[in-house]
Specification:
The chain has one domain: Alpha-Beta Barrel (TIM Barrel), CATH 3.20.20. Helix content is about 40%, strand content about 15%. It contains 11 helices and 9 strands. An 8-stranded parallel barrel has the order 1-2-3-4-5-6-7-9, surrounded by 8 helices. The chain is globular, with a radius of gyration of 20 Å. It starts with about 20 loop residues before the first strand and ends in a 6-residue tail after the last helix.
Length: about 350
């Protein structure tokens, strides 16, 4: 775990058993250097099929825009592509950035997906634009929705998906009355407050914004108000995992991830590059420190190392589900990483 020795929190005696925790996948359809978006989509479907075989609960795709090497901008279309190519795994958005879209359009899009793939579609919602402000304006045109309007947009979306809107002047067809679970996504306290108030499951972006993770989850659990759909709080934490058969191999594979993260620090979009022997000379000490802090919830190593780190993480976090994001250049090694991660959660090696 990057930053593991510093420690998240002084943990008391808590359950660390990973076989009691659901495990899932977050994918951004990252484009590899010298490859095109189609390659990213084919690799995503390949991963989803393997994840299904390994018992992963869900496969989520995240909306991003104006990022040259992130291919998940048309998120609902990709969700349909993955759902069509799989059979049982849940597929969804992690998430749709609701301020970018009219709630009615989101209800219709996910109503269509849920009609085509019943019982398999999730709708995770974020309050950020998933891009820069200039691109956000291009997406929204004359709409003036901001993050402050997010609770109202959420209410409107829930209305369109409800049975109670059957006599409404504006209706979502398809969408109305369908079972489409909604999850609130966040990287700070704001969404934790709203998720607790609305009685919705909560997914935290601890894979790139860990600083408020513990406090946000604690607040959500302590202030959760049961709703019609959920009686108990439910927390998903997203983390980075780079696993291999040996520790040194995993650390070398992780350099592709670090190079991509370096682009974030430099406010540029870097493709997923081939791994290197060392990051020395590629980043400064300040950049390395910033990346290690941002990626504190990252687990790199062999099965034994990753399992131990995940158990320590769960000892502190006490989440219901861990969602794994793995940025690895070589597809076979990426698939192997997810296989090793599944073994950490109790899946027997095939």
């Amino acid at each position: 775990m990057v930053g593991k020795r510093v420690g998240f929190l002084n943990a008391m005696e808590r359950d660390t058993r990973l076989d009691q925790v659901a495990y899932s996948v977050l994918d951004l359809a990252i484009i590899r250097e010298s490859h095109d978006p189609r390659d990213a989509y084919v690799r995503s479907l390949d991963l989803a099929r393997q994840a299904e075989k390994l018992g992963y609960k869900r496969f989520w795709l995240a909306e991003h825009h104006n990022m040259a090497h992130v291919g998940s901008s048309a998120t609902p279309i990709l969700i349909g592509y993955i759902a069509e190519g799989t059979k049982t795994i849940r597929v969804g958005a992690g998430g749709i950035m609701l301020p970018n879209h009219a709630p009615l359009v989101v209800a219709e899009q996910f109503g269509t997906l849920a009609t085509l793939y019943p019982g398999r579609i999730d709708l995770g919602l974020g309050r950020a634009p998933g891009t820069d402000q200039t691109t956000a304006r291009a997406l929204r045109r004359n709409r003036i929705e901001t993050v402050e309007e997010f609770p109202n947009d959420l209410d409107e979306l829930q209305l369109y998906l409800s049975d109670e809107n059957v006599d409404g002047e504006v209706r979502a067809v398809p969408g109305e009355g369908l079972d489409i679970p909604i999850y609130l996504l966040g990287s700070s306290m704001s969404s934790a407050v709203l998720a607790a108030k609305k009685g919705l499951p909560y997914a935290f972006a601890s894979h790139f914004a860990p600083s408020q993770f513990i406090s946000a989850v604690r607040y959500y659990k302590e202030n959760f108000q049961p709703s019609q759909d959920r009686k108990e709080p439910y927390v998903i934490s997203c983390v980075n995992v780079i696993a291999a058969d040996r520790d040194n191999e995993a650390h070398e594979l992780a350099t592709s991830f670090y190079q991509m993260a370096l682009g974030i620090v430099r406010r540029r979009s870097y493709p997923l590059r081939r791994p290197v022997k060392s990051m020395d000379g590629l980043w400064t000490e300040e950049e390395a420190a910033a990346i290690h802090q941002m990626m504190a919830c990252s687990f790199v190593g062999s099965k034994a190392t990753v399992k131990e780190d995940l158990e320590q993480f769960q000892e502190v976090a006490q989440v219901n589900e861990i969602m794994i994001c793995s940025h690895i250049y070589d597809q076979q090694k990426r698939l192997r990483s997810y296989e090793i991660a599944a073994e950490c959660f109790g899946v027997k090696k095939h």
